[in-house]
Amino acid sequence: MNNLNLSVDFIKHLKKQITTSRYFVAKIANAESLKLYFSIGMAIDEQFEKHQWGSKILDTVSERLQQELPGLRGFSGQNLRKMRVFFQEWRNSDLICSSLTSKLKNEQNLIGSTQTNVLERGEKDYKFKQNINAFFSTAFTHHYEIILKIKDKNHRWYYINKTAENFWSVRQLRVELKNQSHLQEQRLPNNFNQCLSPALSNKAMRTFKDQYLLDFINVEDPDDEIDEKILEHEIVQNIKKFLMSLGSGFSFIGNQYRLIVDEDEYFIDLLFFHRGLQSLVAFELKKGKFKPEYVGKMNFYLSALDDMVKQPHENPSIGIILCKGKEDKKVEYSFRDFNKPMGVSVFKTSEKLPERFKKALPTPEELKRLLD
User: Fold this and answer.
1) 346 with 325: CB under 8 angstroms?
2) I need a labelling partner for 298 at 20 to 30 A (CA). Which of 28, 36, 239, 334 fits?
3) d(Cα 85, Cα 42) in Å, to the nearest integer?
């Protein structure tokens, strides 16, 4: 058989068709599952209201379902409780409720026509389309994690959209929720807009966070200053956890990355590459508060990386100074006359959150209601 007539482009074309079809089928299946869980949650909630059921009854419901459908999976008493919570949390949203209940109203053909009808009503509203598509692309397990940890509806949309956009695993989602990423995005003090193109600047702003929770670092008192070498060692030893804290798209190149300039050696604490930005990303670790002199050193590193390491097709290198604390006005003045893209983030080594973060969390009473 002559294989010379099989072009690479032809095989790639078939591969694209297969993967696209699989993704579309998975998306439809996920959307139908969400509709099913919502409708089951609604039916259960109605029975609770009508008959004043106790929570234990759902274990009996699960057992009866197993008798009727031997081998049925995913409908334990605990999961039935989650479905009820899913319904309760979204029933007051016109956008979601009308979409999820359309099947119950005998509208045509599963999610395809449902989404089309909803999108047509909001065709002039890009955010409307984005939210509904993200919602139906996000798995039930992810939805429940978001409901459990975030009470504000607008903040929930942040995580739903990010999960769909970045294909977050449940583990990655939990890291983002723990870090309160919705309160960190686009708060990072930086000079991106004066050093990068508008599109790249916006993407960089969405990539880096104002604060990173590094709770894998073992320190006796989170308020004490930690030695920079110990901090670097702990990060390298737990590089997978650190990558998850950073978010999607980062690849670790190395620590103490050596640069030689005029026969002198210089070492960057941590060097990464970000696929989405197509940029090298240098991290400098500082045990205390931000100081203006840190900027000059980072600017030097970025100039050297751009000249000696960066590939021609890549975007300018970006620097992040990771400190224990910072004062934004000092950062702003320090960046003012530098032309290399930099930002300043802070790290915390415990889950003790500022008061403004705590307001985004459910109260103990609300958590108890969600879990009952």
Assistant:
1) yes
2) 239
3) 9
